[in-house]
Amino acid sequence: MIEQKRASSVLLTKLVQNTTVESVVRITAGSFQVIDCNCLCWCRFPPSRCSDIVCLVSERTPPPGYRKGPILHIPSPQRSPLLLVTPLLLIVLALSSNLHADSTAFIGATIYPVSGPVIEDGVMVVRDGKIESIGARSDVVIPSGATQVESSGKTIIPGLICTHSHIGMGGGGDGSDPIQPECWTLDSVNVRSASVERARAGGLTLVNQMPGSGHLISGRTTYLKLRRGGKVDDLLIRDASGWPMGGLKMANGTNSQRAAPFPGTRAKSAALVRGAYIKAQEYRAKIEKAAGDPEKMPERDLKMEALVEALEGKRIVHHHTHRHDDILTVLRLRDEFGFQVVLHHVSDAWKVAKEIAEAKAPCSIIVIDSPGGKLEARDIQMENGMILEQAGVNVSFHTDDWITDSRLFLRSAALGVRAGMTREGALRALTLSGAEMLGLADRTGSLDPGKDADFAIISGDPFSVYTKVLETYVEGTRVFDLSNPEHRLFAVGGRGAGEDQTYQCCGERGGQ
Known about the structure:
Elements: E1 2-5, H1 9-17, E2 22-28, E3 31-35, E4 40-44, E5 53-56, E6 71-75, H2 85-99, E7 104-111, E8 119-127, E9 130-136, E10 147-150, E11 155-158, E12 160-165, H3 194-201, E13 204-209, E14 217-220, E15 222-225, E16 248-251, H4 266-290, H5 302-311, E17 317-321, H6 324-337, E18 341-345, H7 353-358, E19 363-365, H8 384-391, E20 395-397, H9 409-418, H10 423-430, H11 432-437, E21 455-458, E22 469-474, E23 477-481, H12 485-492
Parallel strand pairs: 7-10, 7-11, 12-13, 16-17, 17-18, 18-19, 19-20
Antiparallel strand pairs: 1-5, 2-3, 2-6, 3-4, 4-5, 7-8, 8-9, 11-21, 13-15, 14-16, 21-22, 22-23
């Protein structure tokens, strides 16, 4: 039962006078809560003008618009309760001012949440690396003490997510074996590479850093948040156990066909992959049979461990594939062994869109590729995104950087729209769809309260060739600012914006 009463000093006094253990004051934007053992109450600021107070004896659901905040524990008072009212209110006011001192409100921008409709004259409040609130200016309460950033005339979009990137110069495999799942880009990525800076300049906040595709299984990928940091640990995304997150890179088609011990035909490629996964199934069975007995456990095998992770759904397979028959081979192997898969590149996807849709296989596509140097990509169509979208396939874009320079990633969506994709679908393909394909949609990919504050501020319409990335934020921290000359260099190019070594593509020592 809910009882509403007029707020007064007497009522507030009664709330604290009988507390035997503690009183708890919770501060929220534009409100405060006073809690004792029996009653939960809310009152709007300022307390001196509070018009009513809502007390819930048995129900613990707050009124609409109120959220829980930091907790202050107040020891049981030993003084007269009448003397407690003013100190309590002073504490509430002081905490309410300090609580949001680290909040930032971006005001007046056109906001594309992706998960919902476009917001004109919007406000987004960021605190502690998270999005606290978002909506039209008239609907969002800006916390007192928050830093206000005037953003009128600008556009805010979620940070761009590249599901297939080679920034950081991470190597692939070494040519000794076509199947190398034990390799991990975590051990080779250079986060101080200029390519990482250029990605930030392009509005990217998250990448799937991949090994090369010159192998059937070329190793484990690494998911990187493009935070500022000088070592790879600073950019890692960790799961609940603290383990760095990533997928498993596989490939078929012509990239992995070369001299022995590599396969020379498509049939042999599939046979080698099938054999590797059968061994992984047998390895897992031995572990299960051992039931934790160290004497019965099989000898540790790093290759098998990585493949078992894929079999158990702990590591998503990101599969390079171009030709229509190669795409169907991937789906056949997926059905046989049960691993999760994201199809990458899929130049011929428009030929088998129905089969891809029926398989419910997401596709990470590229619209700026190099078919002149790859025969199997000769039939790539700019309409791939449109055809897959219309078929009901979850579509994302990727750069395959350096195939598409990360600075130009927004242009991929623009080209997708030009070729028939919806505006909503194309922007989703740069953001939320990518997060879903990496298993990170609960953290990032759209602008929603509670998600990481990963976003880009751009100068205009996301699909205009004249639009520039002005600022990029990762978890609420600005990592790129076009007005900063050092950052601007990586956006526009010039001496110092390139690499300090020769780029290797698809070779035996790593690369694409």
